[in-house]
Amino acid sequence: MVTLQNAAWITMFLAGGALAHAGCGGTTIEGTGASGSTSTTTSTASSGTASTGTTTSTSGTASTSTTTSSGGVGGSGTTTTTTSTSATSSSSGAPVMCGTVTCNPGEVCTNNTCECADANDVSCPAVMGMGGGCFDLSSDASNCGKCGTSCGQGTCVSGACVCGTGQTDCKAAFGGGGGGCYDLANDPAHCGACTTDCGTGTCVSGACMCSAGSTMCPAGMGTAGGCADLQTDGDNCGMCGKRCSAPGGKPAGVCTAGACVCNAGAMVCTTTGPGAGECVDLQTSRENCGACGKACTMGMMCANGTCT
């Protein structure tokens, strides 16, 4: 028998169950704390509106966020989807892949494009043995004013090289395209003059000092000048300025015990005048293609000993 009191209790119980059912929801969180991890969060509320959010992030590679919301009952209404993607360098600062290329140190990857993390820096390519990366051209001594401009032993102030006490600006000596500041009294690569290189020797009071077994060769004779071992130096073999191979290109001979020894397929074609004693590769030399003295006509190249 259902009394009025029991009916009231039943009504309250059913109403409470309906409210609990209307407010039910679920949250699932998955992920790990390691670098390169993936984190996913999904939530759903059913009080007349369906809302689902999914976020995936990966440290060092990419981050993608997608949010979808539906207004109304049973999914009816307006649906909006938003997706954004970005990528950055790894937390260790090591270069990262960006699309099909690898970003230089200091760069981050954004929308498949490498760019400097600091807006004041400029991305410089790797040139002349110098690694690429992001640099402040107003203060970086290796990239002062523009990429690749080295101040040598000097400093970079407001994008211009400033030489210290006792240093000489060698920019003019190198045609204004490089140079830097050097102490000509003790720099073995710029000894006494910007263009004097002591080679294997040392620089003392602006003069090259050669070690035992080396000879000081003047500039303009096969090298920029400096100390050379005449027994093994391919540009000063047996005497200063005697080259075993023509300058530039692949070496065709080596210096052994002060004498040029030609590689296989090469031979000495000239014994007097310019290039005397040089080994010539008959497979590639335009002046001696296939045989000494057989020159290719203008516009033709020598390949495998044949003018083409």
Query: End-to-end span in angstroms?
Result: 114 Å
Quaternary form: single chain
Instruction: Report the biggest beta sheet as strand number plus sense, adding barrel if it closes.
Output: 3 strands, antiparallel
- Give the count of helical stretches: 1
Order of helices and strands: HEEEEEEEEEEEEEEEEEEEEEEEEE
Poorly predicted ranges: 1-87
What portion of the residues fall into strands of 2 or more residues?
Answer: 25-35%
Q: Going across the major beta sheet, what is the strand order?
A: 3-4-5
Q: Would you count the extended β strands for me? A: 25
Radius of gyration: 37 Å
Question: Can you tell me the overall shape?
Answer: flat
Textual characterization of the structure:
Among the domains are: 68 residues, no CATH class; 66 residues, no CATH class. It has 308 residues and is mainly β. Helices cover 6% and strands 31% of the residues. The N terminus is likely disordered. The protein starts with a helix and ends with a strand. It has a three-stranded antiparallel β-sheet, with no helix packed on it. The longest helix is centred in the first third of the chain and has 19 residues.
